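User: My collaborator sent over this chain with a note saying "see what the structure looks like." That's all I know about it. Can you take a look?
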Amino acid sequence: MLQSKLPHVGTTIFTVMSGLANEHQALNLSQGFPGFDCDPALSELVAKYTRGGFNQYAPMTGVPPLRQALAAKAVSVFGLTYDPDTEVTVTSGATEALFAALTAVIRPGDEVLIFEPAYDSYAPAIELNGGIPVYITPEGPAYAIDWTAVAGKISSRTRAVIVNTPHNPTGYVWTQADLDALAALLKPLDAWVVSDEVYEHITFDSQPHLSPASHPDLKDRTFLCGSLGKTFHVTGWKIGFCLAPKALSAEFRKIHQYLTFSTVTPVQYALAEYLGNPEHYLTVAAFYQRKRDLFVQALEASAFRFVPSQGTFFQNVSYGHLSQENDYDLAVRLTKQIGVASIPVSVFYHRKDDHKQLRFCFAKDDTMLLEAAERLSRLSW
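Assistant: Without extra context I'll predict from the sequence alone. Here is the result:
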């Protein structure tokens, strides 16, 4: 009999809720993908390179124009300098980048710190490499990190810390004080930072995105993992990347070459050309802030409580003052009864802690957002 390496893992909640939404023809604000298409100009660029014969294997590290464009964006927007030849790698989605980075640094028995609620790929990637997830749980509604609690979780076996900023699902955006605190804790350790920054261009209210790689004491330790799919509304293209110092990139690439080897060629060339116009990514924050504001303003008529998200395209709401119903049961009931699908936030905790919260994705068209908010506002508790 085959013994499972991930015995506790089943069908993801995202598949479950999207399936339920389809079955009941509900407004799907559960799974985190845009409900609208990308810029037609970007689609035309893909067609241009497909018709132009750019259809064979790309280099393992990514096509040179895309690596150069990613390096140029990193320095112009965030002041981060990376050599496109030795320190920039294109991956088949950010999840692959995260897995390759963790695989490069984790040995059996190593501990890896995770801030939860957390994206569901982190712990399995650690466990598949023989590592041990160590959980830190900031408290809502602000979800600011208690660095005294973090210090209590650090040990001689700490080998990596997973950073996610802007944070899914809470929307928390790390501050300079957070980076300083992390740098101080890691200074005496042989430990690495795996930084999930897929929402790097989606922060609100003029709050800047700060990568751990921007800290002088952290850059040499940091694998910066990002997603062009998230930035340009093309999540199905699965184009991610990893920026890391040369020595880290060399180990990262050893893993990457045996995971996917290379990523779809014409799409890489299209994105490289599209990145040549900075407006294409510099306007993303304003685009999503308008959607966040539209959605939360409409939700003010509801009985839910919430703090507007600082970043990402997710908004959490609380209902514990209204009901003690399990969040999974409520998410299912709302999908069936009023036709609005969400994600129960308990699924992002390793012990399925139920804080009576639901997560809604506002990367949808305005009509859907307003209709969803209206249905939620009509709820009788």
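A starting point for your reply to your collaborator: The chain is about 40% helix and 15% strand.
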